[in-house]
Amino acid sequence: MKCGHICYPAAVKGSERSDPLGRVLDRKKIGSFVFVHHDYPELAERASHSHPWLHLTIVQQGYYRRKLGRRSANYKAGSLTFLQTNESHTDSYAPGSKCLHVVIPSEVEQRLTCECGTQGAAGEIPSSLGVRSSIALQREFRCPDSDSPLIVEALLFDLVSRHVNVIRDRSSARPRWLGLLLDYLDNTFQQEWSLQKMAAEMGIHPVYLCRTFSEHFDTTLGEYIRKQRVLRAWQLLTIGDGTLAEIASESGFADQSHFTRVFKKHFGITPGESRRQSSADSPPNKKDLRKLK
After folding, report:
1. Do 233 and 240 touch, CB atoms closer than 8 A?
2. For 229-245, b where at least 16 C-beta lie within 10 A, e where not — what string?
3. Percentage of residues of the chain with pLDDT beyond 90
4. What backbone phi and psi angles, to 5 degrees, belong to 50?
5. Looking at CB atoms within 10 Å, which of 76, 146, 212, 217 has the fewest?
6. Percent of the chain predicted with pLDDT > 70
7. Which of 102, 82, 83 is nearest to 26 (CA)?
8. What tens digit of pLDDT does each residue of 95-128 get?
9. What is the DSSP string of the chain?
10. Does 245 or 179 have the greater pLDDT score?
11. DSSP three-state, residue 269
């Protein structure tokens, strides 16, 4: 069914189907969930509007900007974002962007709200949580079977509950600036990081930043950053179709050669070999992946 914007449940008003954004590449109904694969060959913008459903967006390529009230943010390749039911917002998709949208049925939303609190999970999911979830959801979309509805629901409950725990952890169990630092690292993959810049952003001394980070996470800041870059690269290799050079840049590596060396060190195979194996359930080396958690 090749229709404009997102072809969602029948409850959508007629005005929602007019003025299409982008193109629908594929659409599948998995149980009561609706998956829609979109691309945006040209700049696609929509003025303030809302949807009568909760949905998750996985950015496979490019980026889009969403404005909620006075808040606006750019969501780049690899981002996972929740949008609340009936929340007014504007969207702007950059040319060449691709997204997988997942419409969450009301009965599942009610259970999520009751048991996890989806309101707390609004916005972007931290990359440390989103990588595995986005790959698993895309796998169900590509190759659904009779178990897929249950698997999708379980993935969403796991994702939301973990996200809510991360929000609580970052806001109360650690120094406030440490939570802000994690958010900063989640949102700035494409930037060239430096210890001095990060410390200045947090308003603390670089030595204190490094020592406190190690005390709370049992790893150095440098090791954490490298692992997050590798995770993001593995995600983009699996869910998108960008070139290796593009993925290296989007994951924050100096160049494709640097990307290949680090990736092979962690997983034992090259990024190209990993992409060819992307239909598998697990990453190239499960033992190494556990180290990245």
Report:
1. no
2. bbbbbbbbbbbbebebe
3. 44
4. -145, 170
5. 146
6. 82
7. 102
8. 999 999 999 998 888 888 776 655 545 577 887 7
9. ---SS----TTS-HHHHSS--SEEEEEEEETTEEEEEEEESS-EEEEEE--SSEEEEEEEESEEEEEETTEEEEEETT-EEEE-TT--EEEEEPTTEEEEEEEEPHHHHHHHHHHT-GGGG-EEPPHHHHHHHHHHHHHHHHS--TTHHHHHHHHHHHHHHHHHHHHHIIIIIS-HHHHHHHHHHHH-TTS---HHHHHHHHTS-HHHHHHHHHHHHSS-HHHHHHHHHHHHHHHHHHH----HHHHHHHTT-SSHHHHHHHHHHHHSS-HHHHHHTTTSSS-S-HHHHHHT-
10. 245
11. coil
Beta bridge partners of 92: 45, 65
Beta-bridge partners for 261:
none
CATH of 175-291 among 1.10.3260.10, 1.10.940.10, 1.10.10.60, 1.10.460.10: 1.10.10.60
Nearest to 78 by CA among 128, 152, 29: 128
Strand order in the sheet with 123-124: 23-30, 33-40, 97-104, 54-61, 80-83, 123-124
Residue whose pair of structure tokens reads 């309101």 in the numeric block:
119
Q: What is the pTM of this model?
A: 0.78
Encode pLDDT of 234-286 as tens digits.
999 999 888 999 999 888 898 999 999 999 999 999 999 998 887 554 445 43
Buried b (16+ CB within 10 A) or exposed e, 48-63: eeebebbbbbbbbbbb
Burial class (CB in 10 A: 0-12, 13-18, 19+), 156: buried
Measure the CA–CA gap between 23 and 38, rounded to whole angstroms. Answer: 6
CATH match of 14-170 with 3.40.50.880: no
Helix (H) or strand (E) holding 69: none
pLDDT, residue 128, reads 76
